[in-house]
Specification:
Elements: H1 3-9, E1 12-13, E2 21-22, E3 32-37, H2 43-50, E4 58-61, H3 71-74, E5 88-92, E6 105-109, H4 127-137, H5 144-147, H6 149-154, E7 155-158, E8 178-181, H7 188-199, E9 216-219, H8 238-242, H9 245-248, E10 253-256, E11 260-267, E12 275-282, E13 289-300, H10 303-313, E14 316-317, H11 319-324, E15 331-332, E16 338-340, E17 344-351, H12 365-381, E18 391-397, E19 426-431, E20 435-436, E21 441-442, E22 447-454, E23 461-464, E24 475-477, H13 484-501, H14 506-509, H15 528-538, E25 540-541, E26 572-574, H16 578-591
Parallel strand pairs: 1-10, 3-4, 3-13, 4-10, 7-8, 13-26, 14-15
Antiparallel strand pairs: 2-13, 5-6, 9-18, 11-12, 12-13, 16-23, 17-22, 17-25, 18-19, 19-22, 20-21, 23-24
Helix pairs in contact: 2-16, 13-15
């Protein structure tokens, strides 16, 4: 079926006049019950679940288009090819004072499915993180023991018969819309990474997603580490999982594409608390503005960057800041856009004595031929190098683990920023080859790629408006490495990667005699102070900004309460990602006359 016929027969709508009114026209548009801002990882979930009730009229607005027919959204290894295209918000942080005054590239998804364009790792987080949410909010429903069933709800676990004995399939979800399993490729260098980690006292983990926690080392591919890659070798997104033909055929659901929300509308005339009643949106800065109205609630699910951006544009935020940029204040909520954090990553590359699939970014005719051959193999069999999720193995550790960081070698006491004693603060991972610039640059050598990311940074920053123009990107300052313990922990992580690189069996693969300065063998001789400077010079993002619409008591810097209601206004909630969206949809159903069985 031709693409445009497919879109026409679904609820993917690009003509805004079909469901909304143009600003300035007489309001003749029918109101929806729920309006969802953002069709990303959470928005698709919410739209699908809420529209299960035929009496709920649901509108979801996505600033980009559909990702279903983009080949790069389906091939697991191809996600970086979306960077620097119209399907991505091309964002950059403010210059980072503690990272050599550099601005860091922060791509964000601009399509249905949103930012599910990463390495496909289905890793849900440490149980202690959820218990911390419960402590902060005073709501035990967020504790791991009570919340984990929402992960089972999203899952449709597909066992790989070759490795079925290694996983307790009974502990996985079987009826959810999101296919998960162990079906990507596994390259030898990543297999060696796992074995080497166990040889340096990092315990092997058979499954990162159990009540036992995330610490340990595992494969993020065809054996142990679960991925969002289905048994057909294709990436799974919230769009492909939740927007099935049956869902899109529902008469009470409208999915609007190329509809960027510019502000939330509030009723401030009546006495009492302002109430969210609708939204304004447009296709582009110079196109007509439209309005749509919600009778029950507006739900903000535009991610860690655009959710606070829209709140601020709508007059919800710090009064002083809003007045500075000439935005009318609806409600003073200083915590909006505060506590911006990210997972900073340090990438290393060492000479591999063997061969690697570096041809996925071909630099020669021979590599171009290999790439085409790999592409043909993937398209015909869904196997081979292109079926990789790139980061095929990972280890989660603590920077204060005495086995990994003996006190006589690491005497400094570092502040514990984790949620619990068993929660990690460093992730080490191995990729199929080394790279730079978010995968745009592949080394001329065959390389082993080793990486460390800081999971619980002490440094936190802000997101603020550049102006009242909704088409101006916000000012994002995560304050990378502003707190000294962050750089100390990353130096420890790099030291641990050095140790792993010189232990067997990985040591036999890596040629540490190589002296090419573009590689990182020379860093092994650096002091901690010198390593810290290299990290400041090269630090990048793992694409995980968070914290800007924090769930916490208002007096502790919260933006939303434990039911994801934005403080100080009515009819407005904010939430993100798969399982949280499942929980929020249950909350909304229960509170609006469509009870969910416990």
């Amino acid at each position: 079926m031709p693409l445009f016929n497919f879109l026409g027969s679904s609820k993917y709508v690009t003509d805004s006049s079909r469901f909304a009114q143009r600003v300035g026209d007489v309001n003749t548009a029918q109101a929806f019950d729920f309006i969802i801002i953002g069709g990303g990882t959470a928005g698709c979930v919410l739209a699908s679940r809420l529209s299960e009730n035929p009496n709920f009229r649901v509108l979801v607005l996505e600033a980009g288009g559909s990702g279903k027919n983009l080949i790069f959204t389906r091939i697991p290894s191809a996600f970086t090819l979306l960077f620097h295209t119209k399907h991505i918000y091309e964002l950059h942080t403010e210059k980072q004072a503690s990272a050599h005054n550099r601005s860091v590239y922060w791509p964000r998804g601009k399509m249905l499915g949103g930012c599910k364009f990463n390495i496909d790792e289905a890793q849900y987080g440490a149980p202690g993180d959820f218990d911390e949410w419960a402590r902060i909010t005073g709501d035990d429903s967020w504790a791991w023991a009570n919340f984990q069933h929402y992960f089972r709800k999203i899952e449709k676990y597909v066992p790989n018969p070759t490795y079925a004995k290694e996983i307790n399939a009974a502990a996985k979800g079987s009826d959810g819309p999101v296919k998960v399993g162990y079906f990507t490729s596994l390259h030898p260098q990543c297999e060696d990474f796992v074995t080497t980690c166990t040889n340096v006292d990092i315990p092997f983990s058979s499954d990162f997603n159990t009540s036992s926690g995330t610490r340990g080392v595992s494969r993020i591919s065809e054996w142990i580490g679960m991925t969002y890659v289905d048994d057909q070798g294709e990436r799974v997104s919230s769009e492909s999982a939740y927007f099935t033909k049956e869902v899109l055929a529902r008469p009470n659901l409208v999915v609007a594409l190329y509809a960027q929300v510019t502000r939330i509308l509030f009723d401030t005339k009546a006495e009492g608390t302002p109430r969210a009643i609708g939204i304004e949106f447009a296709r582009s800065e110079n196109s007509p503005q439209y309005r749509a109205y919600a009778q029950k609630e507006v739900i903000l699910s535009a991610g860690a960057i655009h959710s606070p951006h829209i709140l601020l544009l709508s007059g919800i935020g710090d009064t002083g800041h809003l007045r500075d940029v000439k935005v009318d204040v609806v409600h003073d909520l200083p915590s909006v856009g505060s506590r911006l954090v990210d997972h900073p990553v340090m990438d290393l590359a060492f000479k591999d004595r063997g061969t690697t699939p570096k041809y996925i970014r071909p630099n020669s005719l021979l590599e171009a031929f290999k790439f085409l051959s790999a592409g043909f193999l993937y398209l015909t069999t869904r196997t081979g190098a292109l079926s990789t999720n790139v980061a095929e193995a990972a280890a989660f550790v603590r920077s204060d683990d005495p086995k990994l960081f003996p006190p006589d070698e690491y005497p400094e006491k570092i502040k514990d920023t984790t949620s619990a004693k068993d929660s990690p603060d460093l992730e080490l991972f191995s990729t199929i080859c080394g790279y730079k610039d978010h995968g745009r640059y592949m080394y001329p050598h065959h390389t082993v790629g080793l990486h460390v990311t800081l999971l619980r940074p002490a440094s936190a920053g802000t997101l603020r408006l550049k102006s009242s123009n909704p088409w101006d990107n916000p000012l994002m300052d995560p304050r990378y490495l502003a707190e000294s313990e962050d750089i100390q922990k990353l130096v420890r992580g790099v030291r641990l990667l050095f140790k792993i690189s010189k232990a067997e069996p990985l040591a036999s693969r890596i040629d540490h005699s190589n002296t090419d300065p573009i590689l990182d063998h020379g860093l092994l001789q650096k002091s901690d102070e010198e390593l810290a400077e290299v990290i400041r010079e090269r630090l990048s993002t793992l694409y995980h900004p968070a914290g800007t619409c924090r769930m916490a008591p208002r007096q502790d810097g919260g933006v939303v309460d434990s039911e994801l209601r934005v403080y100080g206004v009515q009819g407005l909630r904010a939430g993100a990602v798969f399982a949280m969206a499942e929980k929020l949809s249950d909350i909304l159903k229960n509170q609006h006359g469509s009870p969910v069985k416990a």
